[in-house]
């Protein structure tokens, strides 16, 4: 297949290979997903592996965690390694982003296992074609290293060690937490945060979540010791005492509103606080294990004179969470890319960074009590991988008229799930552009209405005998787009 017909970026995350969360059904689905990427006729241009791939946290608390290299050489992991090598050999760009569960993976070990062709992202994110890819644990306060603790590990690390011992399969927020998060926003959460400054409250909370992870009462487990990789150990009661002031520390570092948003993210996976400040066309993450495809209205920044500035982009930002391959549920995200016409450029309400004019920064909140902080050492504001961009550098030459010749941007995002022995589209969303009236304003333009009846949103495939999801999008305007060549067959039909 000609490489130029490859116009899809696939994102998978949260495989948790080698742990009890990754089941046999997940393994079968993952094999089908990667085998498609390894086919010569594939439409996949890039594969982004967005963290939590090799499990280093879900080790029983009374056992020492294995080394990074031994984790990747487990018998249960080797089939995945072989498939990724085949994908790379098929001229598909493969990006590897570390998550919180594999944050200790070193570059040397990854190179020894996968070779030099794997693109290892050194940092928390990678961006190309107006899309930001990250794991997402940077928004989760319970998955952040805590400098106030002796070992400075995230508190969720210890919860995972307990869950590995008990076999707890609770790998994502419960429905009750999701419902509560929807009812209580960040502003209300920030007013409740001071409750955690009283030590009995965080102590009660931490003891409760550890008891749930261990499936035993606190009195039974408080003296248990968690064995660390270096041979040292730490007692659960000491851990609870060390992390009792964690939320107060977060408030002092990030500000009340952001700290509340980070705690809300820990409980429910809600990322609206950051998505509304995003300068990107599309944000893709994992971490929460909750497959999501939705849009957020961007906030307006507050200027020094107190007035609100125009939005960074006049359209909504699309947020996609790739879900996971755990607990029997297997999901991933496909991003269809298309090239705009030669008349569409940075003056057509496209981000100027697509044309090399400037690097974006996340919008500051218009709330007075939001505190920004400097980026970590070694992390650029916009980790731009020009080599990974499908845009031809020759087309990115900026002309005096402000017109770029055919820019490749995300056209449509698809949430794909495994069911009935194949992958089917659960939901699809067009990326909105001001120059393409069919891509936004879903309430007015029926051609872009996705909330339709199942019968209207699917088609019956006679070969497989199943209903195959088809996104309800209108025909592309040929004056705006070059039609992407995308295979809509189910995984069963491709095998």
TrEMBL record:
Superkingdom of source: Eukaryota
Gene3D superfamilies given in the database record: 3.60.21.10
GO MF annotations in UniProt: hydrolase activity
One Pfam family named in its UniProt record: Metallophos
InterPro entries associated with the record: Calcineurin-like_PHP, Metallo-depent_PP-like
Domain Calcineurin-like phosphoesterase: 11-123
Protein name: Calcineurin-like phosphoesterase superfamily domain
Species whose genome carries this gene: Carpediemonas membranifera
């Amino acid at each position: 297949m000609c490489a130029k017909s490859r116009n899809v970026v696939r994102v998978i995350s949260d495989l948790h290979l080698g742990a009890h969360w990754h089941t046999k059904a997940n393994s079968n689905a993952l094999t089908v997903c990667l085998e498609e990427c390894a086919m010569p006729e594939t439409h996949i241009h890039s594969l982004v592996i967005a963290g939590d791939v090799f499990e280093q946290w879900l080790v029983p608390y009374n056992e020492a965690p294995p080394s990074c290299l031994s984790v990747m050489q487990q018998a249960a992991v080797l089939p995945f390694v072989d498939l990724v090598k085949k994908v790379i050999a098929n001229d598909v760009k493969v990006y590897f982003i570390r998550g919180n569960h594999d944050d200790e993976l070193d570059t040397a070990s990854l190179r020894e296992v996968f070779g030099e062709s794997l693109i290892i992202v050194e940092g928390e994110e990678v961006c190309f074609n107006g899309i930001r890819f990250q794991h997402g644990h940077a928004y989760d306060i319970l998955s952040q290293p805590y400098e106030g603790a002796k070992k400075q590990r995230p508190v969720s690390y210890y919860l995972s060690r307990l869950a590995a011992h008990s076999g707890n399969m609770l790998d994502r927020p419960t429905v009750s937490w999701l419902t509560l998060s929807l009812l209580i926003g960040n502003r209300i959460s920030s007013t409740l945060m001071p409750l955690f400054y009283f030590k009995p409250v965080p102590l009660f909370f931490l003891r409760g979540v550890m008891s749930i992870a261990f499936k035993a009462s606190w009195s039974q487990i408080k003296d248990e010791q968690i064995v660390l990789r270096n041979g040292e150990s730490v007692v659960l009661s000491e851990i609870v005492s060390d992390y009792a002031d964690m939320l107060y520390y977060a408030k002092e570092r990030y500000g009340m509103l952001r700290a509340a948003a980070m705690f809300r993210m820990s409980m429910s996976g809600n990322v609206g606080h950051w998505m509304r400040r995003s300068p990107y066309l599309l944000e893709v993450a994992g971490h929460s294990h909750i497959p999501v495809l939705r849009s957020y209205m961007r906030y307006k920044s507050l200027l020094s004179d107190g007035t609100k500035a125009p939005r960074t982009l006049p359209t909504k930002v699309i947020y996609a969470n790739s879900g996971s391959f755990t607990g029997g549920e297997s999901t991933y995200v496909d991003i269809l890319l298309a090239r705009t016409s030669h008349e569409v450029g940075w003056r057509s309400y496209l981000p100027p960074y697509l044309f090399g004019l400037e690097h974006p920064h996340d919008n500051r909140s218009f709330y007075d009590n939001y505190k920004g902080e400097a980026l970590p050492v070694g992390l650029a504001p916009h980790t731009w991988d020009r080599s990974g961009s499908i845009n031809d550098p020759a087309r990115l030459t900026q002309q005096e008229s402000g017109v770029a010749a055919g820019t490749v941007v995300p056209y449509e995002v698809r949430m794909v799930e495994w069911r009935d022995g194949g992958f089917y589209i659960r939901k699809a969303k067009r990326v909105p552009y001001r120059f393409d009236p069919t891509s936004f304003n879903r309430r007015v333009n029926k051609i872009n209405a996705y909330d339709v009846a199942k019968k209207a949103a699917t088609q019956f495939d006679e070969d497989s005998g199943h209903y195959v999801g088809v996104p309800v999008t209108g025909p592309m305007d040929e004056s705006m787009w070059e039609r992407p060549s995308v295979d809509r067959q189910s995984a069963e039909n491709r095998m």
